[in-house]
Amino acid sequence: MSIQLIIQNGDRLMEPAVEDGIVWETSRKGSPGKLTFSVVKDQALQFEEGNAVRFKKDGQNVFFGFVFTKKRSKDGLISVTAYDQLRYLKNKDTYVYTNKTASEFIKMVANDFRMNTGTIEDTGFKIASRVEDNKTLFDMFQNALDLTMNSTKKMYILYDNNGKLTLRNLEKMKLDLLLDEETGENFDYTSSIDSNTYNKIKLSYENEKKGKREIYIAQDSKNMNKWGVLQHFETIQEGTNGKAKADALLALYNRKTRSLNMNKAFGNIYVRGGNMLVVRLNLDDVKLMNYMIVENVKHTFNENEHFMDLQLIGGEFNA
């Protein structure tokens, strides 16, 4: 395995000596790609915040971004944090738009902020009208993609592909890669009823016209006997269908929450947040043999070693 890290300061390209490996992290949504590393300070190494950073493994591009933080220590090492182009989606602004698809809105904002774009797939669904006031670009884009998913049932993944803002349908993010007990050193599987599990839903509406309080309840007696009463309560507004909402919340929350992390799996540079991988594991109370979504992934590169830690979601498994 060969790894190459290049920092560009103006017209000057530098390939510094890297200590303690390189870490690359990506998430499915809401966070930029992040590269962290430590370099040995010498007279020839002159770089600053904003300089471009490119990282390659075995000649293949892995990361392109910019230096945001330098941390120096007396041992002569400089710890560096670089982010890809998605870091600029933390900028806040206000936008009002009408009759645009999420992809058209993303292209418009990216152009306003001078971001480089690659493949932006057509999301199809036109958003009639939207006001985004004093929000991050991350939140604006995610709102548009959530509205699209609610209407089309299609999920899209926004990421930076080596310096180009990219939007792809989740179905096109599948990788021909299997994760099982052989390809990962360890896994952490947690099942719980301690958070976001409810077997009784109680909704309250103050009906001022009738001068009384209306109560809507949906519950699962079987799970109440098994787990005890785990109640979710909230007040609802006029015009809300109380019974339908109570039934929908019970269907959503009347189950265990499950989380799954794979640790020190064999590294693959094509795995990023938003990819789908086949997972085959026997987890005692559940057996997995299906595609799961990579919520977060952390790649660690050492001299002759590349492994990754992954958080996986899908079905009953959540972040």
Number of strands: 21
Q: How many whole angstroms does the radius of gyration measure?
A: 24 Å
**Residue fraction in strands:** over 45%
Determine and state the CATH class of the largest domain: Mainly Beta
Task: Walk me through the structure.
It is globular, with a radius of gyration of 24 Å. With 319 residues, it is mostly beta strands. The strands form 4 sheets. Strands 1, 2, 3, 4, 5, 6, 7, 13, 14, 18, 19, 20 and 21 form a 13-stranded mixed beta sheet that branches. Strands 9-12-11 form a 3-stranded mixed beta sheet, covered by helices on one side. A 3-stranded mixed beta sheet has the order 16-15-17. It folds into 4 domains: 3-84, Phage tail proteins - horseshoe like beta roll fold (Roll), CATH 2.30.300.10; 88-162; 173-192 and 257-313, Bacteriophage T4, Gp27, baseplate hub, domain 3 (Elongation Factor Tu (Ef-tu), domain 3, Beta Barrel); 200-251, no CATH class. Helix content is 14%, strand content 52%. The mean pLDDT is 94. It starts with a strand and ends in a 6-residue tail after the last strand. Helix 1 packs antiparallel against helix 2 (137-152).
